[in-house]
Amino acid sequence: QVHLLESGGGLVQAGGSLRLSCAASGRSFSSYDMGWFRRAPGKEREFIAAVKWTGMRTYADFVKGRFTASRDNAENTMYLQMNSLKPEDTAVYYCAADPKADSVVASRRSDDYDYWGQGTQVTVSS
Questions:
Q1: Among 2, 64, 77, 98, which one has the highest count of C-beta atoms within 10 angstroms of its own C-beta?
Q2: Where are any strands of DSSP class E within the chain?
Q3: Buried b vs exposed e over 7-26: b needs ≥16 C-beta within 10 Å?
Q4: Which three-class secondary structure state does DSSP give residue 120?
Q5: What is the residue-averaged pLDDT of the chain?
Q6: Alpha-carbon gap, residue 114 to 5, rounded angstroms
Q7: Which residues contact 54 (CB under 8 A, 6 or more apart)?
Q8: Whole-angstrom Cα distance, residue 97 to residue 93?
């Protein structure tokens, strides 16, 4: 069993920055692929970024260099640095773990992730 806990969300003005953290339980974090997703009001959950256990990173096109995902295996923590935030980035942000990690790159599909955090709210005001 893997437990994930997101933190770092909040209210920020457009153009501002936030850094989200995802703390994971367990001793196998370094072997998991990890992903960030979000769900905006009235919309489906969407992929943001993923970091494979090897450190390889994958991003959604809309990120366009504004967000950076990273992980610290020694701390069992994954991060999402978000810069140049826009009102349309308002959503609940979730981290997820894929213990199988059996793809060449970390998956963009939420169905491939077995464990999820409870989410953290990010609100960007205009």
A1: 98
A2: 4-7, 10-13, 18-24, 33-39, 46-51, 57-59, 67-72, 77-82, 91-98, 115-116, 120-125
A3: ebbeebeeeeebebbbbbee
A4: strand
A5: 95
A6: 14
A7: none
A8: 14
CA gap 79, 48 in Å, rounded: 12
Strands 10-13 vs 120-125: parallel, antiparallel or unpaired? parallel
Closest CA to 83 of 7, 20, 4: 20
Could you tell me how far CA 20 lies from the centroid of its own chain? Answer: 8
Question: Backbone phi, then psi, for 61, in 5-degree steps?
Answer: -60, -35
Strand partners, 20: 80
pLDDT tens per residue, range 43-66: 999 999 999 999 999 999 999 899
80 SS3 class: strand
Tokens linked to 49: 């970024």
Read off the pLDDT band of 11 (50, 70, 90).
very high
Position 27 confidence tier, pLDDT thresholds 50, 70, 90 = confident
